[in-house]
Amino acid sequence: MTITLRFSTSLASALLVTSMAIHASAADPPAPDRGAEPRKHSFSATIGLTPLYFGEAVGFTDGGGDYFSSADEPLLFGLSGDYMRSFGLVRAGVGLRYAYIQDTNSHWPRGWQTFAHELGIFGLFSLGGTTRSGVDIAATLGLGIGHSWVPNFDLYPPSWGGTGELLVSVAIPVNRVADFFLRSGMSVAFYMGNMTQEGEYPRPDAYLARAYFPFELGFRRRF
Can you tell me the distance from the alpha carbon of 192 to that of 173, in angstroms, rounded to the nearest whole number? Predict the structure, then answer.
């Protein structure tokens, strides 16, 4: 009788433990979806428009004299594409920039004229983080090289030079993998011209020095 009672008690205890384990297992949250894990790569594309452009160029025309040029009423249109790799709060990547600067001084006889074109490639270094609501905020330093075309100069124009930028970006999530992307800051550059000197009197080197404050918007894709 005693043996039977002990066996019945042990069996009841085992059944109770098993039942509790099954209930706890059913209450556990499901394993996280791998698709919800943070994505470490991103690509962003933006367009920008700003009148806050300040620059002056010195070059030479076939008339033989130094020629100074600046945009009296500038308007800059820009396109950008960036690839970034995230290492937590630190990100690194590469960016491509194109800018078209128009002088909108419409006074006769000039009218609207192209002041300059620029194309540059950047190495990008960024610090940033994500808020609880999923908004990503980052500050990015970019250093690179670029090439400029200044139509006003047909002899010894500015060409190759160094460029730098410091930008602050905000990425607002639209879905799991895409963000609405806004960016602003400051960009500077200095381009030198063809240093070949011809004729009896040497001329100073051509150059283009400029700074502008971009306002950009676009999208970012995470993968």
Answer: 41
Over its C-alpha atoms, the chain yields an Rg (Å, rounded) of 31
> Whole-angstrom Cα distance, residue 98 to residue 119?
5
Burial (CB count within 10 angstroms: exposed 0-12, middle 13-18, buried 19+), residue 36: exposed
| Tokens encoding 151 | 């139509």
Report how far residue 79's alpha carbon sits from residue 35's, in angstroms, rounded to the nearest whole number: 31
Do the beta carbons of residue 213 and residue 50 sit within 8 Å? Answer: yes
Please state, in angstroms and as integers, the Cα–Cα distance from residue 123 to each residue in 30, 36, 44, 96, following that order: 41, 29, 15, 9
* pLDDT for the residue numbered 156: 77
Section 45-59 average pLDDT: 95
DSSP string, 134-176: S-EEEEEEEEEEEEEE-TT-SBS-EEEEEEEEEEEEEEEESSS
Bridge partners (DSSP) listed for residue 118 = 99, 148
> Do the beta carbons of residue 43 and residue 220 sit within 8 Å?
yes
> From CA 114, how far away is CA 149, in angstroms rounded?
10
Work out the mean pLDDT of the chain and round it to a whole number. Answer: 82
Q: Whole-model pTM above 0.90?
A: no
| 178-194 core/surface letters (b: 16 or more CB in 10 A; e: else) | ebebebebebebbbebb
